[in-house]
């Protein structure tokens, strides 16, 4: 038991270090020995958990992929909104999430399959939209898989723009604006009238889940 | 005259080489001496045109920023559509445009101000939306600057997703879908009914402007 706990902690330590190194240097320039130094673990421990740089990157990407389950809402579209706003909040506050998103968008990351995180998010968002469709929350012409593609792709760009323009200061506003302009085109009016699409959803949902901003990893 | 022509050609040769090197290696890893080798020009010529790596990157970004003027259409929103679809087409076919877009999204490009291209595109798209507003083509609640922000940010992400998922094969479809889902929420119904938002607009507009796909630079 104790041994297993320690193994989990070591894995987490390595991933945090990898996230920092990838974020600072990019996938291509980052080296395993830099990650080893940053993590302060033995070479054996690192290779036991992650045999290659690609495995380390996949581990970081996978850590941000963990969608935190938003509590059930009256409308599935509100759940979708809160899922998106919570991801924006985590991107602003959690270095691991930030590193994972950046790796997914790192066009110089040769040999790293970056289609996985997109496919994963399209599946999560698409499932919520399928349920919304079943419950009559969508307009007839809205195709869940298309809307999921648009939302996931658009969010990736909106976060990149926010990072370039304001170092993520304005991310919640931009994410809320994206939803305010896309959702009215696909949501039934009665549902739309009941939605809260403001940036408040980010902090409210994070608080509900007991999340606090991560202190920057030393 | 001849001298000036040659200078323009040299500048173009250097920019093409820089685009290739930046695209292959990323901003951070690319070196001026690699670009020098790829361009096959003298060191003096390179430094005359571009004193630093940052200047080279700005030159490549600026080259993709050149918005080709889409001929006037019956509706400003159609002009906006054609401008976006033409950019998608150029991204698919012109290595310089591709390198510029990637540099703007390269989060590891330390010391390179990447907010410029976003601001530039927001201005171009915002100006078209302002005109659309004046001509009564927008719904009352649509704020041109907000819509411009959404479209520019979303497009950046949609192209990144297309690159990661299909190496740009599906870019025109994704760009058309983005417009099909965002524009109905901001466009007056009579205008909307008259729009062509299909991916055909990309090739049609490119042909009108006499563009042909660039052969890959050797």
What does this protein look like?
Two copies of one chain form a homodimer. With 218 residues, chain A is an all-alpha fold. Chain A has two domains: 2-59, Arc Repressor Mutant, subunit A; 64-208, Tetracycline Repressor, domain 2 (Orthogonal Bundle). The first copy, chain A, is built from eleven helices and no strands. Chain A is elongated. Chain A starts with a helix and ends in a 10-residue tail after the last helix. The relative contact order of chain A is 0.13. The model of chain A has no long low-confidence stretch (mean pLDDT 90). The interface between A and B is large, with 40 and 40 residues.
Strand content of chain A: under 5%
Question: What structural category arises from helix and sheet content of chain A?
Answer: mainly alpha
Integer average pLDDT of chain A = 90
Oligomer: homodimer
Range of helix content of chain A: over 70%
Give the largest interface pair and sizes.
Answer: A-B, 40 and 40 residues
Uncertain segments of chain A of ≥5 residues (pLDDT<50)?
none
The shape of chain A is elongated
The name CATH uses for the topology of the largest domain in chain A is Tetracycline Repressor, domain 2
Number of domains of chain A: 2
Classified in CATH, the superfamily of the largest domain in chain A is Tetracycline Repressor, domain 2
Sheet with the most strands, sense and barrel status of chain A: none
Spell out the helices and strands of chain A N to C.
HHHHHHHHHHH
Q: Count of DSSP E strands of chain A? A: 0
Number of helices of chain A: 11
Q: Under the CATH scheme, which class of the largest domain in chain A?
A: Mainly Alpha
CATH architecture of the largest domain in chain A: Orthogonal Bundle
What separation lies between the terminal Cα atoms of chain A?
28 Å
Rg calc of chain A: 19 Å
């Amino acid at each position: 038991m104790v041994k297993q706990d320690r193994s989990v902690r070591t894995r987490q330590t390595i991933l945090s270090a990898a996230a920092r190194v990838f974020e600072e240097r990019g996938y291509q320039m980052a080296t395993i020995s830099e990650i080893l130094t940053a993590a302060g673990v033995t070479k054996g421990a690192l290779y036991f958990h992650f045999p290659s740089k690609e495995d380390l990157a996949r581990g970081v990407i996978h850590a941000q992929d963990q969608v935190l389950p938003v509590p059930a809402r009256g409308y599935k579209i509100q759940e979708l909104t809160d899922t998106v706003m919570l991801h924006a909040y985590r991107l602003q506050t959690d270095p691991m999430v930030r590193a994972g998103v950046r790796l997914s968008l790192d066009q110089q990351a040769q040999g790293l399959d970056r289609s996985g995180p997109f496919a994963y998010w399209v599946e999560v968002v698409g499932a919520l939209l399928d349920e919304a469709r079943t419950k009559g929350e969508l307009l007839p012409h809205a195709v869940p898989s298309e809307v999921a593609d648009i939302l996931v792709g658009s969010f990736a760009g909106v976060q990149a723009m926010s990072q370039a323009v304001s170092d993520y200061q304005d991310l919640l506003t931009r994410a809320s604006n994206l939803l305010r302009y896309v959702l009215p085109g696909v949501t039934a009016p009665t549902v739309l009238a009941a939605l809260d699409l403001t940036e408040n959803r980010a902090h409210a949902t994070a608080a509900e889940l007991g999340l606090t901003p991560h202190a920057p990893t030393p």
